[in-house]
Every structure is written in C-alpha cells, then in structure tokens.
Amino acid sequence: MQITVHRTTQPKAMPDAQALGFGKYFTDQMFLMDHSPESGWHTPRIAPYTPFLLDPANLTLHYGQSIFEGLKAFARPDSSVHIFRLLDHMDRFVRSAERLGMPLFHPSDVAEAIETLVDIDRNWVPKQRGTALYIRPTLIAADNVLGVRPADHYLMYVICSPVGSYYSKGTAPTRIYVEETYSRSSLGGLGEAKTAANYAASLLAAEESKAKGFDQVLWLDAKEHRFVEEVGTMNIFFVIDDVLITPPLNGTILDGITRRSVIDLAREWHLHFQERPITMDEVVEASRAGTLQEVFGSGTAATISPVGELNYKGEALIINERPNSIRQRMYDTITGIQYGEIPDTHNWLTLVEPHAAANNGNGHHHTTPEANEVGIVNS
Fold it and tell me: Which of 13, 247, 322, 324 is the most buried (most CB within 10 A)?
C-alpha cells in the first residue's frame, strides 16, 4: 500500500513520562484512509494530528456505526520498538467491521499503515517500564444523511497516545461491583464486537459503581443475571481450588487479545485450566469455602490487573492473593515479553523497522495538509 506522508511542521512538546496517565496526550501524526462505493479503500495518508470537520448530519453521530481497536507498542533499551500481537488485533478489527455492516479490509494493509505511523512517531514511544504507545485504529461512517442504514462512505483513522498505567492506583488490587440491574450485551447482540455502542451501554453502571467506591463493573449474562461475562474493560479469570477458569466466548464477550495470551500461557505451562460458564453463586461458594484463591482481569489497557474485592448482593468477597500467584506469573511473563526481557517464543511481537523514508521524509509524495473533513456526501 502506497501511503502519502506529510509530517507536521510544528511538533509538540513531549509530555513528562512520569505523568502520562492514559489517553491524555497524542503524537504529532495520524493515519487516515477513505472508502467509497466507487473506489473502495483509497487515499491512505499520514498527516499532522488535527481535529476533524464533522457535519452535524454525520451518520456516526446519530446511529453509532463506529468500531475501534486498542493495541500497544513498546520501546526497548536498544531503541527498537515492537508492537504486541498486531495482526491478531487487525483480524479482530475486521470482524468488528463485518458485524457492524462496514466495508472489510486486508488486516495486513492496516498493520502496514500502523507500522509506518509508529515508525514516524517512534520518538513518542516512552522508554520507562510500565509505559507504552497506545495505538487506536477507528472506523466510522462518513455520510451526511439521516436515516437508519449502513453508510456508503467511511473514514478509517489511527491515532497514538503515550500512556502509563490505565488505573490511577497502578497495579494495586481493584474493587469490582457485580452489576445485577443493567446488561452490557445479549446473545445475538454486539458483545463480541469492539464497537462504541458496547462502551456507551456500560457508562451509567460504571459511574454508579464508582460513586459507591468501586473501580469497575463485573457484567453478568442478560437473561438470568447469574453467569459471569466480563469486566468493563477486561476479561475475567478466577483461580478456584488451583483451577484457572474463564467464561467461554459465546458472542456476548469480547475476544480479548490479552485473554488469548493468558490462555496460551496456561496451556503451555500445563496449568489446570477450564474455559466454561461460571456463575456468581459458584464464586460466592468458593469464597466462603476458602478456595477462591485469585481473581484477575486481562486487557490491553491494564495488561493483567488483580482484583481484591468483588461486591455481590451487598456481600464483599475479599480476595487475598497468594504468594507466587498465577496472576503475577502471567503479568511478569507477558510484560517481560513486551519489553524484551523474556524471549518471544510465540512470535507475538512485530518489530517496527526504522525506514529512512519515514524518518527523513524521502520516498513519499508530500501534500499540503487540509482539514480532515468527515461527512462529505450530499444526499
């Protein structure tokens, strides 16, 4: 794919690596690509990061036809940069597009665009342990017309953000409220797609739980409100009587890439592992019996996050993580691979090759950047 590159002439100041937080700062450049019925995917370009001009009738604003991904690039002491499970994320991006009735694309093409963007902005990849460059590919409708239907035109874009810890208290155990009133997804719905609608559905419950002093919400199934599904931004794992358990993918749960990594390692280490339905009643019973040994979440943003409390029906289930926990071993191994401290025997990492063309501005056609206008169709 031939990508047109125009680098910014006004680079931004780098943020303090000790105060990154999550998603507060953005790199100098962004990737954009358009889709139309006549031309298919066209005009792939890297341009200065700038706001969009968005028409008030843009379909995305009214009907929510929007998907996204989230992945990370990591810097090493030798200045090399590696992206974690890039093609796995792109495959999931395609599946989300298919579920939302959006045009499909070749995962390798978008992966190439991401590598090029990260290479150009590689000086934005923070080098401290516990930091990364968060990469956010997004696909939205670009028609300016009212009416419930899939759009004819689309815009894909990728932005990047240097990040620290997702949670304000870092890797300290989280307090999670088990939601019994609201539902995140139902069978046949959008639960397995990484779409804006799923996150919108979770916001009220998340705010109500935070008002009660909790960090996240644990979602149960929509039909019976008994079966565990996932946490607001993570998949969930339990260790009960030395067995690692996670709910199965059934169309309502996001197919987490970090979740896959945990499962791959569990099988490689010959742990007692079960991917099966699990009810909150079973979790409560294990807690009362003293066999609930660990609870942790997995996700790109937080990697592996310990859970210190589950609050269900007014009862606080306290999880005191044991020494040499599975969670700690998972965290150490996955982050060790990401930062190059442990060999990547799974081929999870993609090396971002430094290209003179990207870094020096040679070998690409340069254009004068215009405003990134979305919603150009007149109907």
Answer: 247
Task: Go through the chain and tell me how many residues it has.
Answer: 379
What CATH number did the domain enclosing 314 receive? 3.20.10.10
pLDDT tens, N- to C-terminus, the chain (379 residues): 899 999 999 999 999 988 899 999 999 999 999 999 999 999 999 999 999 999 999 999 999 999 999 999 999 999 999 999 999 999 999 999 999 999 999 999 999 999 999 999 999 999 999 999 999 999 999 999 999 999 999 999 999 999 997 765 557 899 999 999 999 999 999 999 999 999 999 999 999 999 999 999 999 999 999 999 999 889 999 999 999 999 999 999 999 999 999 999 999 999 999 999 999 999 999 999 999 999 999 999 889 999 999 999 999 999 998 889 999 999 999 999 999 999 999 999 999 999 854 544 443 444 444 445 444 333 3
The parent domain of residue 295 ranges over 174-320
DSSP 216-281: EEEEE-TTTS-BEEEETTBEEEEEETTEEEEPPP-SSS---HHHHHHHHHHHHTT--EEE---BHH
Triad 64, 224, 238: Cα angle to 5°: 90
Residue 158 domain-assigned (yes or no): yes
CATH number of the structural domain spanning residue 148: 3.30.470.10
Residue 114 belongs to a domain? yes
pTM of the model: 0.93
Q: Buried b vs exposed e over 310-332: b needs ≥16 C-beta within 10 Å?
A: bbbeeeebebebeeeebbbebbe
Do 306 and 367 share a domain, yes or no? no
Cα separation, 173 vs 321, whole angstroms: 9
Q: Taking CA 173 as the corner, what is the angle to CA 172 and CA 179, rounded to the nearest 5 degrees?
A: 140
Residue that terminates a domain, selected from 304, 320, 336: 320
Q: How many domains does the chain have?
A: 2
Nearest to 83 by CA among 352, 308, 278: 352
Q: Is residue 249 part of a domain?
A: yes
Q: Are residues 125 and 148 in the same domain?
A: yes
Say if 221 falls within a structural domain: yes
Task: Assess whether 191 and 163 both reside in one domain.
Answer: no
Backbone angles phi, psi at 119, to 5 degrees: -60, -45
